[in-house]
Amino acid sequence: MEIGVIGAGVTGLATALELSKIGHRVTIIERDETPMPNTCEEAFFWDRSGAPQVRHSHALLGRLHNLLRDNHPEVLSMLLDVGATEICLTDHMPDTLDDHNLVEDDKNLRMLAARRTTFEWVLRNVVMENPDVEIQTGKGVSGLRLEQSSIPKVTGVCFEDGSGQGFDSVIAANGRRSTAPNWLTEAGVSLPDEEVEDTGIIYYSRFYKLPEGVELPVGDRLVAGDLGYLKYGVFWGDNNTFSITFATSDTDKTFWGIRDPETFEKVVRLIPAAEEWLNLEAEALTEVHSMAGLLNRKRTLRHNDEMIVDGFHMIGDALICTNPLYGRGCSTGFWQAHLLGQSIDANIGDSVAQGEQFSLQVEKNILPWYNASVESDKSSRSIANSDSDEISVMKRSILKEGLIPATQTSTEVWRAFMKMMNLLADPSILSEPEISATIMRVWAERDRRKPEPSLGPPREEMIKLLGLVSNG
Ligand SMILES: Cc1cc2nc3c(=O)[nH]c(=O)nc-3n(C[C@H](O)[C@H](O)[C@H](O)COP(=O)(O)OP(=O)(O)OC[C@H]3O[C@@H](n4cnc5c(N)ncnc54)[C@H](O)[C@@H]3O)c2cc1C
């Protein structure tokens, strides 16, 4: 088939990779004028205004690592060759766990440390080696060509310059700001209502590089925490780079000043686990980038068990996007590309069946993660707004004073938590009888434990130390 893929972000490239490997000809259309740089260092300064999140920290989870290892080893090996690192999570097991013996399945507990631009640059390099893939950059799609049939059939795309191109199938991988639903509506196809939940956060990120010869101070814990009013994380990158991200409420203006590099670094220095990273003569590579308007959103092209359009798929953030705090988007985007490749391959010659299978696979594999994000955001919001009911307060307490400390003492809970965080086991793994019994036992002992050292100052103290004015 001749397939048009709209968008050369992670999902568009992954889709092209999957489909070209099973014998389809793929044309990728990308609006950003992004000629291919020679190195990943140059790619870091790519103009990616169509995907501004590339300027933010990206965790690349175990699900993504394993899809690459098992299906696209050439991508994994190029990533490692250009300076990315495999994070073997069992190398960072807390010393305090009750059993340090490894099990066979632990080989799957691997993440990748790389800047998002490095990952995209490697993917694009590998994809473009296939002569069946063509990329057109600096070209935007403005609509779809459709033909009326029992189910409306997409036959190509219209470009912003007024021209167009025909395809057997079109895939919209054009990100969270995708206008694909409008293209369908304009052509007379109405989508079922989408579900949208605001995450209520603003993101602030800054990238750094350590001098040659200085190693990233990676310990036995990933550096991430929640001060209640401010969440933070330190992300290892490739080639001795790392980034620090803060997330605050988008309605509490008090901390909006974090965008100022001096204020940003003052905050870092007030959080002991993060400060350590700046103390190694880290050189800032960027300004502080911020991003708001972050949503959880799900769409579908299926209504009453039937596809509403033929020869057209939406994928990646264009179909389902979740709160970036959970670091799942690139992994679920890549996973969706894999599921779409399988759906197309299993139904050659029947494009409606391809869409149906893909939709069902997304419901089965990806939607549980969307639901988990929405659920978790609701609980965080109600705690922050102090309008939570008793059950939410109890759930929060079990999470903070049961689950989190149990990941430091019980290997079984640590392993289940790592699998869940890396999309390798469904969120329900934490409710399995033995795991939940351990979590509840640790929770029941909460008053007998020494309090955990503080992660950073409480809100009022932070405001004072930064010289800010409360504006919540
Ligand atoms: C602040 C932030 C932090 C994040 N952190 C993480 C993380 O830690 N880990 C993680 O896995 N995910 C993270 N994500 C999510 C992740 O970035 C997305 O899930 C991922 O980029 C989705 O990839 P995509 O290819 O679907 O869309 P995008 O990467 O957004 O790519 C869409 C592409 O389509 C192009 N395009 C758009 N419209 C058109 C058009 N009409 N014609 C042609 N081209 C078009 C755009 O230019 C863009 O290149 C984060 C997101 C945000 C916002």
List the helices and strands and how they pair.
Layout: E1 2-6, H1 10-21, E2 25-30, H2 40-43, H3 62-71, H4 73-81, E3 85-88, E4 110-113, H5 116-128, E5 133-137, E6 141-147, E7 153-159, E8 164-166, E9 169-172, H6 180-186, E10 195-198, E11 201-209, E12 224-226, E13 230-236, E14 241-249, H7 261-269, H8 272-278, E15 283-284, E16 289-291, E17 295-298, E18 302-303, E19 306-307, E20 312-314, E21 320-321, H9 329-346, H10 351-365, H11 367-384, H12 390-409, H13 411-421, H14 433-444, H15 459-466
Helix pairs in contact: 1-5, 1-9, 3-4, 3-9, 4-5, 9-10, 12-13, 12-14
Bound molecules: flavin-adenine dinucleotide.
Concise synopsis of the structure shown:
This protein has helices spanning 10-21, 40-43, 62-71, 73-81, 116-128, 180-186, 261-269, 272-278, 329-346, 351-365, 367-384, 390-409, 411-421, 433-444, 459-466, and strands at 2-6, 25-30, 85-88, 110-113, 133-137, 141-147, 153-159, 164-166, 169-172, 195-198, 201-209, 224-226, 230-236, 241-249, 283-284, 289-291, 295-298, 302-303, 306-307, 312-314, 320-321. With 472 residues, it is of the alpha+beta class. The strands form six sheets. Strands 11, 12, 13, 14, 15 and 16 form a six-stranded antiparallel β-sheet that branches. Strands 5-2-1-9-20 form a five-stranded parallel β-sheet, with helices on one face.
